[in-house]
Amino acid sequence: MNLPNYITLSRIFAVPLFIWILSSNLFGGNHGQREILASTVFLLASITDGLDGYLARKRGQITTMGMLLDPLADKLLIAAAFIGLVQFNPHIVPAWIAVVIIGREFLVSGLRSIAVQQGFTIDASDLGKVKMVVQIVVVVICILERRWHELNIGALMIPLNVLAVVGIWFMVTLSLVSAVDYFVAFWKKIDRQVVKKRRRAFILSRRRKQSDVAAT
User: Fold this and answer.
1) What is the pLDDT of residues 8-46, one digit of tens each?
2) Cα-flanking dihedrals φ and ψ of residue 189, to 5°?
3) Could you tell me which residues come within 8 angstroms of residue 141 by beta carbon, excluding any fewer than 6 positions away?
4) What is the pTM of this model?
């Protein structure tokens, strides 16, 4: 175990804490205290997503365990956030949105797993990185929106309800577009693999025919 892996594990351990804060009645009547605390935990956990990768590359500590735990931690955090929001703020995050977002994450993970089995990798696209940032911002907005009117900062007249709705739809659209982008990249590389295999088989067959002719 190294420092980047410990940071990744902290993100995994933050998931049950985040869910407990959202679902617990301990902070329910304290004028947005639960919303602020849940948003803080989620933001801190999200920051570790970039921090562990940066440290692993800088310190030369990229390990098999880290490559396994990092995407797992990301998926757990996003899944926990949207499943929790379905219960916590259902008028902003209905169940079907959670299904779309979580389904997209598992689809991309599946494509990457198949790609590894085929001998190539699918790097994170720019759209995927932007999608992750948008998801973090939207989750925080959706958490705070629930009792925004009770917070003192609500006096700033920021229309958080409108931002939450617009953000959710933008995030869903971006998630689907980035999923298509990953799918296209996957099939392009699969096609290249097929072409290479056909060329290799063609060359081998020609060599065999030439060797058979030479032998006769």
Assistant:
1) 899 999 999 999 998 887 765 556 788 889 999 999 999
2) -70, -35
3) 160, 163, 164, 167
4) 0.81
Sign of the alpha-carbon torsion through 108, 106, 4, 127: positive
- The three-state DSSP-derived secondary structure of the chain is CCHHHHHHHHHHHHHHHHHHHHHCCCCCCCCCHHHHHHHHHHHHHHHHHHHHHHHHHHCCCCCHHHHHHHHHHHHHHHHHHHHHHHHHCCCCCCHHHHHHHHHHHHHHHHHHHHHHHCCCCCCCCHHHHHHHHHHHHHHHHHHHHCCHHHCHHHHHCCCHHHHHHHHHHHHHHHHHHHHHHHHHHHHHHHHHHHHHHHHHHHHHHHHHHHHHHHHC
> For the domain bounded by 3-215, which CATH number is listed?
1.20.120.1760
Name the residue type at position 129.
Answer: K
Among candidates 70, 56, 31, 9, which has minimal Cα distance to 153? 31
Q: Are 105 and 162 in contact (CB under 8 A)?
A: no
Task: Provide the residue ranges of all domains of the chain, joining segments of one domain with +.
Answer: 3-215
Q: Name the more confident of 184 and 196.
A: 184
Q: What angle do CA 27, 32, 35 make, to 5 degrees?
A: 80
What are the structure tokens assigned to 151, written together?
Answer: 């917070």
Q: Is 159 left (phi over 0), alpha (psi -120 to 50) or beta?
A: beta
**Model confidence at 194, in pLDDT bands (50, 70, 90)?**
low
Are 52 and 4 within 8 A, CB to CB?
Answer: yes
